[in-house]
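Contributing new records

If you add data, match the layout below exactly. Sequence lines come first and carry their own label; structure lines follow with theirs. Keep one chain per record. Anything else will be rejected by the validation script.
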Amino acid sequence: MEGINQVSIENTKKEAKSASKRKWREIEAIKDKLILEKEMDGYNDPLSYYSDLIT
């Protein structure tokens, strides 16, 4: 019985760690999106922003 509880505790820790990593990935994605939007603010057309990146 003790072994089952230990496995359950370990699984719970892994799930919490996984959820935490997922949240950080979501935060990073939002941060990247905001940075991109801020960079694109000076451009009227998104295509002109990307064409400036290429050249």
